[in-house]
Automatic annotation (TrEMBL):
<dbReference type="Pfam" id="PF06364">
    <property type="entry name" value="DUF1068"/>
</dbReference>
<protein>
    <recommendedName>
        <fullName>Remorin C-terminal domain-containing protein</fullName>
    </recommendedName>
</protein>
<feature type="compositionally biased region" description="Basic and acidic residues">
    <location>
        <begin position="43"/>
        <end position="61"/>
    </location>
</feature>
<dbReference type="InterPro" id="IPR010471">
    <property type="entry name" value="DUF1068"/>
</dbReference>
<feature type="compositionally biased region" description="Polar residues">
    <location>
        <begin position="62"/>
        <end position="76"/>
    </location>
</feature>
<feature type="region of interest" description="Disordered">
    <location>
        <begin position="43"/>
        <end position="76"/>
    </location>
</feature>
């Protein structure tokens, strides 16, 4: 009877280990897909920033910032 019970417990632990391994593989696949998506998004962002700079955009420049600077220069 003890051997049969040990086999059941072993089988149960093996099933749980298989579930865990399967979950880890799924998690790893999702992480890899997310990394690829992030890399693609960074490339796209870089292209848009390059186009914006070609049209005169500067880092940190906003409409309110530009107006304030223009007003300050006009007053000086």
């Amino acid at each position: 009877m003890g051997l049969l019970e040990a086999k059941k417990v072993t089988s149960s632990y093996q099933k749980e280990a298989d579930k865990c391994n399967s979950g880890m593989e799924t998690c790893e696949e999702v992480r890899e897909k997310a990394e690829l998506a992030l890399a693609e998004q960074k490339k796209l962002t870089s292209k848009w920033e390059e186009r914006a700079r070609q049209k005169g955009w500067r880092d940190g420049a906003t409409k309110s910032n530009i107006k304030t600077n223009s007003n300050a220069q006009a007053a000086a």
